[in-house]
Write a structure and sequence with these properties.
heterodimer; A: 303 residues; mainly alpha; MetI-like fold; two-stranded antiparallel sheet; 1% strand; B: 474 residues; alpha/beta; D-Maltodextrin-Binding Protein, domain 2; five-stranded mixed β-sheet; four-stranded mixed β-sheet; 22 helices; 11% strand
Chain lengths: 303, 474
Amino acid sequence: MGRSKKSGLAKTRAKSIALAATVFLIPALLLIAVYIIYPIIDTFLISGYKWNGISSNRTFIGLENWMNLIKDKLFWSAFGHNLVVMVFSILLQIPIGMMLATFLDAGGKKFNLFKTIWFLPYLMSSVAIAFLFTYALATNGGLFSALGTLIKGQKVTVDLLGKSPNALFAVIGVMAWQFTPFYMVYFIAGYGNIDTTVYEAAVIDGATRVDYIRYIAIPLLGPIFKTACTMSLIGSLRYFDLIWNMTQGGPVGSTELMATYMYKLSFQQFNMGYGSCVAAGMFILITVIALLFQKVFVVKEDY
Amino acid sequence: MKKKFWAVTLGLAMTAASLAGCAGAAPADGGAAPAEPAAAEATEAAAETGGAKATDGKNLPELTTEDMTIVLWDIATEDPTKTIQEGAVARFMADYPNIHVEQVHQQNDNYKQQLVVAMSSGQCPDMYISWGGGPMAEYHNSGFADDITDLYNTYDHPDFIEAAIAQGSYKGQILGIPFGGMSGCDVFYNKTIFAEQGIEVPQTLDELEAACEKLKAAGYTPFSLANGSKWTGSMYYMYLVARHSGNDEFDAAYTQENGGSFTSDAFIFAGDKIQDWVKKGYFPEGTNSMTTDDGQDRQLLYDGSCAMMLHGSWQARSMAADNQEWYDENIGVFRWPVDTEAEAKGVPQNVEVGTAIGNCFNFNAQGDQDKLNAMYVLATQYYNDDTYNEEQMASNTIPSINGFEKLVTEPNMKIITDVFFDASNVQLWYDQYLPASVTEVHKDSMTALFGLEKTAKEIGEDQDAAMKAALAEQ
């Protein structure tokens, strides 16, 4: 702004805009402050205490919890499981979601029924899914054991949830079943965003459907991929409910994730101080990984 | 980039928020509802009785005549317990119309967590159900479970069995009044299969193993076990330890003093025995993936693939409820067999596993003596009164009160009750007795043991380490 003086009217207008903005933002900011910012700060504060979660006397122990966290094998093994879940979530959910979306996009309205059916898993609550699959994967009378028995002609038992490392991969499979539909819809929306003229131009230039998908649609979906990956990454690092209801982190901690570990410490073992430290540690780890991912893979803003 | 940073940060924030949010906020009333109808009934009943109280003539503290509200948490969400417990409260309120009891039924699954959240946010109920053991000690040390030893010694109370009061006590102070009845732990077996194979009820461990061999040879899996729940496998471990060493080695391991350790003789014996049995196929395939809450272990008894199941006595109730006819025809009970080798050395063979209190009430009066008195009267005179106990017996729950063992007639319950009342000592389930952090390690140890992932010595060392850490905390 080169001018030092604005006209009275513009000034008033700017003022009233600022006022309106403040009024409209206050409720949202308050909610964010109370339910997000305050709890985060509080988590970090509690992580400096030795506290069983119920007693009125907490003992301040400085960084002792943090020192323990750095040496805590259980925490790092849980983090390792989170990383495995993360990698497989991205490798399974996004490509399959993409393929389903491509299929549906090519089929148009004829495939609306599939669209609805395939989306159903995402609409179910994690707890319900957990129960469903606990039975489906059961060693006795479960789907896989029954199939094996059918094929082999004698009683076969397939132990998917009771052994390591089967359990972790079984759970990853169930997670993929749950979340793939979300990415499917996400990619369908992505396809919908591509201007039809692009497709028409490609066809006029002699491109086949496959050429179009490979050379035009997928590159145009690039940013969507990156966002999807980021979401899947964050989601799998803070995952809790399905695992908790299927395995509670077992057998022998082989499906323990950072979040289930935190929950056990805080609410079952009366160790809220250290549980908060784990939560804060998770927060830092997830932030760092998500930012690194953004830095490395999201080269430029486009679309 | 800044925008992105905030987007990511906000996206993540939920992680931390989910924990701290819980710690600070008031408890959500998930599925819990105060029992309003009970209150209405109470007033009606009061009008009828016209002042004569059930407690008249008893040696009890004088209760306040001023208005008072008692917030009570239980887990009686289902009948018959719901009706029985609401009845007790209704009778109390009829006799003391000025005292209002707000009875809140919590879901069992997340009750303990709910309670922790309530305590941490200053919303702890005035009286609440607990299972004794490590968590109760934690509540007491944090100032949420009053010492009622004086009240108990001064005033009337039912003739509770000693083990029940012991399990509701901590460091010599009485903290809990039992009201849930006792639960033993015995072997349920399929009488039909035993008869078909010509197997007698085993009295010794050797006979038990011989029976297992015979069953195995005939194509049965000897034991049904859903060890996904972990405390189920622990029953085998606890009993093998108890028969091999009575209470001595466990008590020593608990204090970690005088050479006490979870790697001592009896623990190694128990762990090795279990792993030997696992290798011989005495337990079902995939036992670590099955849970008992949805009855997967009972299922294996029902379909005839397993012949025995060591379990809590409430299973008798559950099986009878599933199919009374089948239960009567097929299911028998025997006590865990004797360890002859240990017996020869003079180890008592009547230390049993189970819980004498089932549940107890703990009290959080925060210094309000009037309130504590009222709660004491409610817990000892209305819960645990004749009506209450009769209703309990009718639903196959034996009150932990002397004399009731003589009233049991159902043959299986009779065996269970006799075993329990003849015990020289009742070892409370390890997973309730041990401090909470050790419980977690103990439960994981059971998974590792039955999954053959760790040896008896290794799990012993894990439990020792956890126990030492827990003792250091105290």
